[in-house]
């Protein structure tokens, strides 16, 4: 009975979504390949937009190229998208004049098996022409929200119960009524094909990953360190979930995977694989973006500075005391801060409080290869009055430059920390210690700037 009701709800919400859907006229595949080739040569980073949509999937990272090569609908030419420049025209070729007229929000959902399955991955993107940036909010699939006609449930079930129409409504209502303009749905089947077409990806595996589940026919066996992963092993990396970090650790690996695929796609040799990449996108992507909108997004993404791609995990906490220990309960204060800083959406009452540097927990991780360097950093920070500082296990991949990882969207505090340290590259991603607000990954440059005698 529950299954029947779920199907009925899905049909209801799908009908509502259909009223907003765009025309189903198809593009010329040859034309798309030609346009994609021009964009790629224009800027090897191509489209950060697409990259994210691509890397969306960590059950199915499917395509930095998604928006451009999706075999989807086109408008009838009579109605221009509400977020395109009103002077924009599309005549079958790339036009440099195509522009975003305002910030655009896109919900990306990745599922295992088919489009109607639970959303194993959820990302909310903000493409902002005002400051030439792309913001990416990772929404843990176990986030507890209210789903109409269902009740308090995990957000991943919204797509199952009502398709993209219900999923976008639930995400919007749960996140301070943030407007959502379009959606992209991707299945996991394309991940292996994508990575194999790219001839594998280089990624640093931070820990040994071993897991076996005969019921899911899932076997994971990865060694720690730098690896070249083929499609099967990339899927293992994407799906691994340890007991300590749970789904948050999996979401964190999604962001690492995004960075790795991004780096691979900058290789000029990828141009030769464009036809295969186009085919993957057409097979595994469902979206209500029109061709005109896709071209504008691609043009926008091609001009983005890598530093203006910023990623964050929706703040919250796992509840070991609840009936379902994997459930993720949103932190209202943290949510307000992230939605304000990343999406320009303020809470209904008041404004988010800016947290001072002294109030934040800071994790210090040695990535220099020099023993005990993290202890010296902690001493320096405590001398500056910062008490919530602790050392975590060394990062085994030795790096030249110190990084300040902005885990929870505390931009101002991170800038203040950079001033205290006197060095450090900002990394806007949730790839540091999950129990901290800021993570300092100490590189070799620390010793060069602060000799042992001065610490």
From TrEMBL:
Signal peptide: none annotated. It comes from the Bacteria. Residues 119-265 form the Cell envelope-related transcriptional attenuator domain. The chain crosses the membrane at residues 45-69. Keywords: Membrane, Transmembrane, Transmembrane helix. Belongs to the LytR/CpsA/Psr (LCP) family. This is Transcriptional regulator.
